[in-house]
Structure prediction request, 89 residues.
Amino acid sequence: MLYGVLMFLCTLTFTLLFLSLRSIQEVDGLLHLAIRSPAKHIATFTMEIAGIALAEYNTTISLILYTGVVIILLLPTKKIEKALQDQSK
Prediction:
């Protein structure tokens, strides 16, 4: 359960940092172009909260949820790579 809380706090901190960086950038900036919908962040938040809640009842499901969060966050976002390539042209 403590691992899930730590993961949740790290995700929350990263999201707040991302949103603050995005707010000081122009509307047509790289972060705005690369990430328009926060679906990945919402999915990881939901899975982490469910993992924390289920850790007391079923650790296997909690472990599966945490593994899913790690896999989601390790997959590169193609929108960012495309925005970087478009900006370098």
Observations:
- The chain has a mean pLDDT of 82.
- Residues 2-23 form the longest helix (22 residues).
- The helical segments are 2-23, 30-34, 39-54, 59-74, 78-88.
- The two ends are 46 Å apart (CA to CA).
